[in-house]
Design brief:
This protein has about 80 residues and is mainly alpha-helical. The protein is built from 3 helices and no strands. The longest helix has 26 residues, at about 45-70. About 0% of the residues are buried.
């Protein structure tokens, strides 16, 4: 028996999960809650911790916007 035919026998059928409106809103709500908790923790932290974290987040956001702009810019 060749290795190829052996692999085919164990292949499972992949099920596709349906994205419903309820699942989407639950996902957004949970991520929003996590983000609010993170922001609250950063603002409550000591400035020696909060300032570098905020600077890093602003840098990541700037990098993402800059990369997106240059990736979609037509030559």
């Amino acid at each position: 028996m060749s290795p190829r035919s052996n692999r085919r026998g164990h292949r499972r059928r992949q099920s596709r999960r349906r994205v419903t409106r309820k699942k989407l809103w639950r996902f957004i709500r949970l991520r929003w809650r996590d983000m609010r908790a993170f922001v609250g923790a950063v603002w409550a932290a000591h400035p020696a911790v909060a300032i570098p974290v905020i600077a890093l987040l602003l840098g990541v956001i700037w990098f993402g916007i800059n990369w997106t702009y240059h990736a979609t810019k037509k030559p």
